[in-house]
Amino acid sequence: MPKFYCDYCDTYLTHDSPSVRKTHCSGRKHKENVKDYYQKWMEEQAQSLIDKTTGPPRPGMMPAPHMGGPPMMPMMGPPPPGMMPVGPAPGMRPPMGGHMPMMPGPPMMRPPSRPMMVPTRPGMTRPDR
Asked: Considering all CA atoms of the chain, what is the largest pairwise distance in Å, rounded to the nearest integer?
């Protein structure tokens, strides 16, 4: 009589019948083994991904950019339009009245207007005619 082997539990069942398989697969020990198996698999996948991203660069791959860059040069003159500071510069008073003037925001976009479609029945006239 053939036996059924469970890969998760690493064991043979007494015989191969649907009822024995069902009983085994619904058991607490089998469910724990399945959970442990997939948890280990996920950990291996995560570690593999970490090793790929943090390991030495492979030939043909671009090196990771370094976070430092050239030092910023101080700007000379007024900032370009749209780059105006929002609040007062440090050490400066707000203008008279105690509040900052509102900066204009981006222009509002309006969808194109279309003529409204009105369903008509035979014998009715359209309201725009």
From this structure: 98
